[in-house]
Structures are given as C-alpha cells and as structure tokens.
Design brief:
- By secondary structure, the chain is mainly α.
- The chain contains 13 helices and six strands.
- The chain has a two-stranded antiparallel ribbon.
- Strand 5 and strand 6 form a beta hairpin.
- Helix 7 runs parallel beside helix 12 and helix 9 crosses helix 12.
- The longest helix has 28 residues.
C-alpha cells in the first residue's frame, strides 16, 4: 500500500470518527428524548426561576441535557424569563423546537380569582387575561353564568386556575363551578345538620366575605348577622346595596351614599327589605363559609371598622352611635 493510499484511508477513518462523534453528540444533547409520544403540557408556575424551569424540563424528560439547553436559551434571549403558564410540548421535539415553544406565547394562562369578587369582576379578569372581546364578556355576565338558578352568583370559586387560552367562557364557568362543588361538598352535610339550606349559608358567607376586614372578623360578623335574622331585624348591609347598584365611577364596591339607601328599590337593599337577598352578592372563600357554620356567640347587633380595619361591635344602637363618634 502506497503512502498516498494510507493517508487517504486515515483521512477517511478520521472523517467517519468525526461524523460518528457528531452523531453521538447530537443524540445525547440535541435530539428528541423520545419518539412517537403524544403531546403533553409543561407547566411553569408563577415566580418560577429559569433554573427551576430547566430542572423541571430535565426531570420530566423534555430535554436530554440541562447545560446544553441553557446555552440555547441564553443564545435566544439571555435575560428573558420564561412566562408562567402552560405549554403544549412533546418529548419528540428536539431542543430547538422546545426552546422556541417555551419562548412563544403560552397555551394556558394562570388566572387568580380573589375572594369576594362578584362574577362581573371575574369576567373582567378573564377578559383581560384571555383577550376576550366585549361580546364574550357580555355572554359571561348574561348567559354562561345564568344556566342554573342556584349558580347565578357565589359559586365561581375564588382560586388560581390554569386555563387554556382558547377555552370558551361557558367551559370556564363550568370549570369554576366544578371547583366550587368540590370545595363546598364537605360543608353541605354540616349545613343540613344545623337545618340551614346550603343556598342560605352561601348568601350569608358572601355578605360576611364583603363585610369582614379579615379572616379574624368573620365569626363575629356571622354571629351578628344571625342575631339580626333571629330577631327579625333588617340586615342593613352596605355591601348588598353596592351589589344592587352595580359598577360606579370608582369601582364595583365604592361606598354607598345615603340616597342609594332611599332610591335603590331592590330585594338586595337590606335596609328596605328583611331577610337575605335573593342570591349571594359575591364569591366567598372557605373561611367565610366556615364562619357561617361556627359563628361567634355575641350579644352585639351592630358593628363598624375603624380606619385601621379593626372591628368594634355594640349591643344597642346607642352604643353603636358612640362607636361611630369615637372611631369614625
């Protein structure tokens, strides 16, 4: 064999070695972890760091090598965080496809519903987060949330949801009422044992949620509400008038005026009409529901909150007027 042939053979072997090495490197670092697998959802939690995202991608089998993937992300956008939400990705995607996917718009959005919001406020959050138009928002208020007489209000459970961006308003309403059914189920028997309709308990819970300055106030306010109902008094709750009035210039729950009490002729006006309103006035959390079942024993019939949201109660209206002078 001539020297020239030996050189050619050596070069060929070297090229084969390099190609094989590149193939192995591609397989180990860049190729899809699996073949013939279905699409899955990769979830990025709120306040999740890029490092935590990389760890989850590796542990859940969406990437083969964390350092290589981090390098690719840094090349694409070093300072950009991955947006919280859900991404539909698959283990048959290579690293570039995965990187491109999680730096694109999320397929699912986190939506947090605070306790004590009415359904129209929830609709506003959904519209802003999911990009609803006015027509879809109007359907949320007037169609999707009016399918069941017992679920008109109070049953759109306050929680954090991961919602597909293309999910319909009707399906979101069903999602939230299912969560309510799950969370409320343990309390139905407790209400029955106290001879309280669950719908009655939910109405009271919604009022307590709106009236309380915090969790610690709720049992006392519940006790006062029960005292008023048992003595045949009007509840005289500002929050029920706020609900009847609707959205004012400065929000859904802006303070009422004296003329509102006089002019708003609604079954939700608990200054004019005895008993509870026809439906809940907001969507309460579990603390308010528990307060209805376990009210604080008290002789008080009146209460107010001072400027620091501290509650002060009174047994008589005369005592209540003194509290008004002292604290307001």
């Amino acid at each position: 064999m001539t020297r020239k042939n030996k050189i050619i053979i050596a070069i060929g072997i070297f090229i084969i070695f390099i190609a094989a090495s590149l193939g192995v490197a591609w397989y180990l670092f860049f190729s899809a972890p699996q073949r013939d697998v279905t699409e899955d959802v990769f979830i990025v939690n709120k306040r999740q760091t890029k490092e935590q995202t990389l760890d989850k991608l590796k542990s859940q089998g969406f990437i083969r090598n964390k350092k290589v993937f981090k390098f690719i992300l840094d090349v694409k956008s070093k300072d950009k965080e991955v947006e919280a939400g859900g991404y539909r990705i698959s283990k048959n995607m290579n690293v570039w496809k995965v990187a491109r996917k999680i730096y694109s718009a999320t397929d699912m959005k986190w939506v947090t519903i605070p306790e004590g919001y009415r359904k129209e406020q929830i609709g506003e959050i959904l519209a802003e987060t999911l990009g609803w138009n006015n027509e879809e928002l109007e359907k949320w208020n007037t169609v999707y949330t009016k399918m069941n007489a017992d679920y008109l209000e109070g049953t759109y459970f306050p929680d954090t949801y991961l919602i597909p961006v293309n999910e319909s308003g009707l399906d979101i309403a069903k999602r939230m009422t299912r969560r309510f059914d799950e969370q409320f189920a343990p309390y139905i028997g407790q209400f029955a044992n106290q001879n309280i309709l669950w719908t009655t308990g939910l109405k009271l819970a919604s009022i307590i949620q709106r009236e309380a300055g915090g969790k610690s106030d709720m049992p006392l306010i519940a006790g006062i509400m029960w005292n008023r109902l048992n003595q045949g008094m009007n509840l005289e709750i500002d929050a029920t008038i706020q609900y009847a009035r609707g959205k004012a210039e400065n929000g859904w729950w802006a303070p009422i005026k004296s003329e509102d009490i006089i002019n708003i002729d609604s079954p939700y006006n608990t200054y004019k009409y005895k008993g509870l309103p026809p439906h809940p006035i907001a969507n309460p959390g579990l603390d308010a529901i528990q307060a209805v079942l376990h009210p604080e024993e008290t002789e008080c019939l009146f209460y107010l909150h001072d400027g620091n949201r501290q509650i002060h109660c009174a047994k008589t209206y005369e005592e209540h007027k003194l509290n008004i002078e002292k604290y307001l």
